[in-house]
Specification:
Number of domains: 3
Oligomer: single chain
Largest sheet: 4 strands, mixed
Number of helices: 2
Number of strands: 9
Radius of gyration: 20 Å
Distance between the termini: 42 Å
Length: 166
C-alpha cells in the first residue's frame, strides 16, 4: 500500500472516507482532498474539484467528481508513464532543468541541467537571479547568491507579469 500522508489517514480532517484503491508502489507518497482549487492558465474560470496526488518519481495529479475517481485518473497517468518504452525528455520552454517525456508526457523536475548559468562561476543554476535596468537576467548559484545586488531582485508581481507576457 502507498505511503499515505498523515493528514489523509483515518481520524484526520482530510481523510474524507477514502482509502487508496489502486496498486500504488509502497514507497509512493499520496494525498487527496475533496475541494482543490484549480486556477486555469487559459484565462477560464477557476473551479473546485476532488483531487488525488501521487509522488512516485514525479508528481501526478488526478481530478474527478469524487476522490476515488480522481485517484483512478491519477493511476491511469501512472500506468501510462510506467508503460513508456523509454523516456525522452524535452524542455518545452523550461530553463530550470525540468522536462516532459515526449512519448508519455511524464514531468521530471531534474531532467536536465538548468539552461541558465551563474554570472560569477558559469555553473548551471536556477538558484537565484536578478534583473538589471536593461531587463537582463543575471543568475547566481548558491555559493555566489550573496553577490547578487539586492536592487535587482524582481518582485513577485514583476515575475508574475513576466510569466503572463510569454
Amino acid at each position: 500500500m502507498a505511503n499515505v500522508a498523515a493528514h489523509c489517514r483515518p481520524g484526520h480532517h482530510a481523510h474524507a472516507g477514502h482509502t487508496p484503491v489502486c496498486a500504488w508502489p509502497a514507497d509512493c507518497y499520496v494525498q487527496w482532498g475533496t475541494k482543490g482549487l484549480v486556477l486555469r492558465r487559459d484565462g477560464g474560470e477557476p473551479y473546485i474539484t476532488a483531487y488525488f496526488e501521487a509522488f512516485p518519481e514525479t508528481f501526478i495529479r488526478g481530478e474527478g467528481s469524487n476522490v476515488e475517481d480522481a485517484e483512478r485518473n491519477a493511476f491511469a497517468k501512472f500506468e501510462r508513464y510506467q508503460a513508456c518504452p523509454g523516456h525522452e525528455f524535452e524542455r518545452r520552454g523550461y530553463t530550470n532543468g525540468a522536462g516532459f517525456c515526449k512519448h508519455c508526457g511524464m514531468f521530471k523536475g531534474k531532467a536536465f541541467l538548468p539552461a541558465t548559468s551563474c554570472t560569477v562561476c558559469s555553473t548551471p543554476t536556477d538558484y537565484s537571479y536578478g534583473v538589471d535596468a536593461n531587463k537582463v537576467s543575471h543568475w547566481y548559484c548558491e555559493d555566489h547568491e550573496q553577490l547578487r545586488p539586492r536592487d535587482t531582485q524582481p518582485s513577485f508581481v514583476d515575475r508574475l507579469r513576466a510569466s503572463n507576457e510569454d
